[in-house]
Amino acid sequence: MTRYSLAGVVLGGWMVALEARAITCAPGPSVNITIPPITVAAGQQVGQVIGSASGYRFDSPPGSALRCTTGIAFGAQARLALVNSPPTGQTFSANGLSMPVHATNVPGVGFAMMARDPNRPFMPINTAGVTLIVGDIRARPIVLGLDTRIYFVATGPITGGTIAARNLARYTITGTPISGAGYYAVNFSNITINAPRKPTCSVTTPSVAMPMPAVAARDFRGVGSFAGSVTRNITLSCTGGTSGATRDVFITVTDQTTPANRSDVLSLTPTSVASGVALQLLRGSTLVRYGADSTTIGNPNQWLVGTTGNATVQIPLTARYIQTGSSIRPGSANGLASFTMSYR
């Protein structure tokens, strides 16, 4: 029988102690999105950007979004998620990214957000949350920054209002305690959205004299014939409108001698001496019919001058004599009319 002898062998080795150190992080001062009042462009279409076409960029100071006691754990994800922001189902594209559009409290105004770690590309942000960086062998940062860009987007008709200040997005790290509120905050400050401004028009010729030339009775050829004429302009100055915004301009002319007159013949004033004649006003080749002194849109015999933006508007009117009787008595023949402007 063969016997084997086992010599006692002492295997010496190092005992390695792994010290588990808990990682905690603290948020820096929040990003507060403060933007000067935005005036919506005239004719704004759904899906178009409101305000700056390049968006509004708001970044945390370098390395101040989250600061941790040590590098974030392997596999830990730094994630940004929108809050208090219902999705509209619409999307908006910029810089090669398609971003979901979320609603604000102002009807017709939504927003889209992209964000990134300063060393990573931008990502579209949503309410589910998007990973901006993952702790791995290449990167286990102790401090994290955050770059954000906001685009405001038309989602429907806009009448204006104020986007209320609120928490908009939260930046967290999975599996990692964060002191304070438990996240790094991106917030809206109050943001004023102004609806498109139509121009305001004022009359720069409040009184228009139309001196008629002297005519002889023989210049007429019977009832309904005309003689003598003069043309003058009513002038408006329309200013202060948003680029592309327009306003409809209406006018009513009233016979001041006979306010109830709704015909196309202007009465002679009581001091006139002539008879058998009257006056007519024309706008181009169309006779002016007289209406009540009222600014109401749709006033009888009111007419649309046109639609204008920021501009000077000229309204040419021509006065002429018309024979109204079989015989004409010479003398002065004066008329007095007023004009009333209406705007829409």
UniProtKB/TrEMBL annotation:
The keyword Manganese is annotated on this UniProt entry: no
Q: What's a BP term from Gene Ontology annotated to this protein?
A: cell adhesion involved in single-species biofilm formation
In terms of InterPro entries, this protein maps to:
Adhesion_dom_fimbrial, Adhesion_dom_fimbrial_sf, Adhesion_dom_sf, Bact_Fimbrial_Adh_Pro
Looking at the record's lineage, which domain of life comes first?
Bacteria
On whether Transport is a keyword of this UniProt record, the answer is no
- UniProt xrefs under Pfam families: Fimbrial
Q: Give the Fimbrial-type adhesion domain ranges.
A: 192-343
Q: Which UniProt keywords apply?
A: Fimbrium
This protein's major location comes to other
Subcellular localization is given as: Fimbrium
Q: Name one GO cellular component term.
A: pilus
Family, per entry: Belongs to the fimbrial protein family.
Under PANTHER family, the record lists: FIMBRIAL SUBUNIT ELFA-RELATED, TYPE 1 FIMBRIN D-MANNOSE SPECIFIC ADHESIN
Question: What protein am I looking at?
Answer: Type 1 fimbria pilin
Annotated organism of origin: Pseudomonas poae
